[in-house]
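Hallway conversation turned thread

IA: we were arguing at lunch whether anyone had actually written out Protein C12orf4 homolog end to end. Turns out nobody had. So, for the record, here is the sequence (563 residues) and right after it the structure tokens. Reply here if something looks off.
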Amino acid sequence: MFLKMTTERTETIVHNATKTFKFSFPTCTNEELLFKLEVPVEIPYDGSPRELVQRVINMFHIPVYLEDELNEKLAQFIGDETREFHNSRDAKLLDQLKNSELNVDGIVKQWEKLFKENVVEFAEQKGTSDEEVFAAAYHKLVHSPALDTILQVENSYAKTVSNMMQSRDEDINKLTERQTEEMEEKMRLLNVSTTEEEINETAARQFEAQSVAAARWESQLDALRHTQRAAHRAWLMAALDHYQGQAELATPSNSPLTTFPPEAGELVGSGGLGEPRPQLEESFTIHLGSQLKQTHNIRLVAADMLDLCALNHHDNGAAARLQPALALYSGELTGAVVLCEAGPAGTGEPPQRLLRLAAAATEHHFDDINRQLRHIAEAIRAPVTTLTNLVPSTTTWMNNTRLCVMSGRRSSATPGARSRLRPGDVLVTRHSNLDTHVIFHLVVDDSLKADITSRHPAILGLRNILKAACCNDVTTISLPLLLRNEITEEMTAAWCVRRAELVLKCVKGFVLEAAGGGGAELRTLHAALPPHAPDLFAAVQSLLPSVFRVAGPLRAPRRAAPL
């Protein structure tokens, strides 16, 4: 095929040949008297043989009853001559190739040129997007001496947003207190100097005042985040131009650090976390697999899942942003599994505290979490066959605007549109202002309060999460071990141990299955238990060695010292 394609462009090697098609037929009065027809045909013939027959019949006034015979013989003639032409041409080219008479390099270059011209002419004209340019610039700067400056700038931005959120909460709380006192006074004077109609009017007026105040503060916060996002991107691109070819990055005169020094104030953008509490934690090195063993780290910790997602701003906000910034555009992403419930409209409703954590600092790289959730709600209404079940990987996942909707069920009941989420479905949001880059929102329901099996939709959703994590460069993931956010009365110690054992065994199989499919290796797994349960932590800690093959030191027997 290569020789055939190349020779059609090489005029010095072969040319089209002209063959004569001969056809004879008797006259109507004398069968021994034959009319002879000779038609030159160019081989290979690119036209239609039937069209050529019609032209010959009209030109030479051939009887129409000979049309079928003429079609058959002309088609056979063209086929035989074309086959002979290709055979002779290919034989000649093979002989020239054996004798090194063909300029193969020239032919390849000619085809490369033609291919490029064809692609430029017909392919979609698409260049590098602004998001990709910004991602490359940010990745280059954070792996340079400019890292400290970038972290301090982002931390100062976060402090500004956090201070405004704190002012908003104080203003709304004062308004609520005034309205409560006013309503209590109205209720005290009911049927004395106040009527029910006046109380209803007061309640409506207070509700409207609350709505106006909340909308006003939200508008100011959105404007601040938009301004910070644009200023941060412009400053980063200017810093990259300033940094090119220099050993260190000097802080520009228009840097936000000139207004907000790194040591000014304590950042309270953790959403009301308060001072960090000491927590129970234990790390294990485990081995998975029978022949080709895989080494993983399991960190058992007694903490709220949202505490693991939040940046620790208590000691040094810039230092807390170090690891998430370095791994943002890399192959070592971090993820977290957060439980959510399907809302009345059929969309996922993450915990309000998570929304507050994500809103405590400006999102400089992706859409904010509320906009991402709106995109997910729109994607849910699309046909189920169009929903993607992959998280964009490495650098492309940061610029992909499609959000993930994975199903925890084996198949859908109907192939049509899905307007509601079900238990086991997973939503994915991306973040650069949290301690985790990817959050898997696992939809759950009240069925998790009872005993479950390994085929429960939530367990299958966890399987999809681990598979997507391994396929898309998420090497560290945190998950709630009991698939519950907090301990309730019906969760006895025996029930918690059984649930932890089931989840650990399923995770063990899912990690082995995901690793066999290729992709990144899931190196670290954070298993979170509800806090304030030291007995449960000790029980699960002793359970881990029975589920996994835990690496331990080899102790050699002591020998008696020689006399």
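OS: looked through it. The first strand starts at residue 17 and ends at 26.
IA: good, adding that to the notes. The chain has 15 helices and twelve strands.
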